[in-house]
Write a structure and sequence with these properties.
It is built from 2 helices and 5 strands. It is α+β, with helices and mostly antiparallel strands and 101 residues long. It has one domain: Alpha-Beta Plaits, CATH 3.30.70.1530. The structure holds zinc ion (ZN).
Length: 101
């Protein structure tokens, strides 16, 4: 299988959101570069580079799937009422503590 870089994300939770949506849609995907982004928030976002890779044959499918996520993901981030963590707009649960947003 040929893997291609699909997207570079600014934070780990964002990358995992993308990864989860892709796998839900049947795309073989994986998160790479996590070690360079130990915890979002501890280092400037500009320095955090987390990549999502997909199998090249599924790149078009991945792009289509993510277009829907991006459309749903517009707007301000949700701030968790329990722990105060910022979550991407498309998140329904806090990535840190699991509270319903
Ligand atoms: Zn939380």
């Amino acid at each position: 299988m040929n893997w291609v870089r699909f997207r570079t994300c600014r934070s780990l939770p964002e990358a995992h959101l993308v990864n989860t949506e892709l796998m839900r849609g049947g795309v073989a995907s994986e998160v790479r570069g996590e070690s360079r982004a130990p915890l979002a928030g501890e280092i400037p976002f500009a320095d955090a580079r987390v990549e999502v890779w997909v199998v090249s044959e599924q790149l078009l499918l991945a792009t289509t799937l993510l277009a829907e996520v991006d459309a749903a993901g517009e707007g301000p981030p949700h701030t968790c009422p329990k722990c105060g963590e910022e979550n991407p707009p498309a998140f329904e649960l806090c990535w840190r503590c699991g509270t319903d947003l």
